[in-house]
Amino acid sequence: MGGVVTRQAAAHDSVPVPAATYETQTWTPRDRGYYSRAEMRRQRGPYQSIVTAPLVRWQPQLPAGVAADVEDGARALVDFDLHALHALGAESPALGPMSAILLRTESSSSSQIENLTTSARQLALAEIGQSDKANARTVIGNVRAMEAALALSDRIETTAILTMHRELMRHQPGFEQHAGRFREETVWIGKDNAGPIGADFVAPQHERVPEAIQDIVEFAERDDLPVLVQVAVAHAQFETIHPFVDGNGRTGRALAQAMLRSKKLVQHVTVPLSAGLLTDTGTYFDALGAFRDGDAGPIVHRFADAARFAAASGRVLVDDLAAQLAEARDKLTGVRAHAAAWRVLPTLVGQPVVNAKYLTSTLAMNEVTAQRTLDLLAERKILAERTGLRRNRIWQHTGILDALDNYASMVRRTPP
Question: What mean pLDDT is predicted for residues 412-416?
């Protein structure tokens, strides 16, 4: 994609960080009738779980190439934030909806890293309670987690992280009881569900989680580090701690957004950082592994690359959405200035699928005004009614949905 600069980390561009250590534990699987006797025998005995090293007093030594890379990525994010502001204007009623749709785009990309995919239309339908797609409802949970992250970004605390996770998981069927709670069990990544022996990664023992998270909180409070270095390292440490039964990746990326806002690197819109990570998930996961082994260089480079991609691709999306909004304004030429349709236009940027109930609840219209407004927008070919029903009808802005789906296609990860 034009304008995206990717810097490959040189062999000497390592950033030493305290390596994780390991402790030996003993696993005795519970026989619930789920596994064969052979598998039960394999999963009986010693295994090693990771122990994270504290970060709060870490003083990074950044090679010149890494420092330049980080500065370049940070500048790209600042420029993107300002571009979104200038594309619409500080007083534009569309700035809030634009931030909302960028947040939803970030949430969708973050979910896609976990193999949760949905279309822009299904996501918009889920926002008004009209989608029966499980993935769309799950991604909406990630939207709520991102919203919570930004709302709590003034001060990163343990309670804020738990709130992010609660908003994420309470929308995911089967995990409601774990929402907003640190895990109280061993978790691992690997093919064998009966136990952690032979797993690719075994997270710290659950008793270590609260103290390890508090270390991240104190590390995030520091103001003497380059922001992208701080965000990348805090994220990698969070993923290593794996504090929850599920939702660790999405919560960790929500935490990254909260830190970007907290450090004032971006102030007006949500940066689609996960879209940049999504373009090459292989190097992203490899970088997390290198971090655990004592080298933060790869994850810092990966975040710098993701920042540049997010800024360049996000700029295209902002411009495409602004163009759709301008075209819609042109189609309303001649409509009186105080007509309700003018109030609806900017909301379509953030919510391109609407119904009468949405307008009455969001814009405080009465039902008659809402229906007349929808009819006018359809008559002017700004919205299209897609159900063909006489009741419970839904209207959509096809141009905005197409722009969002084109963006998703552009950033979608390629198969390994």
Answer: 50
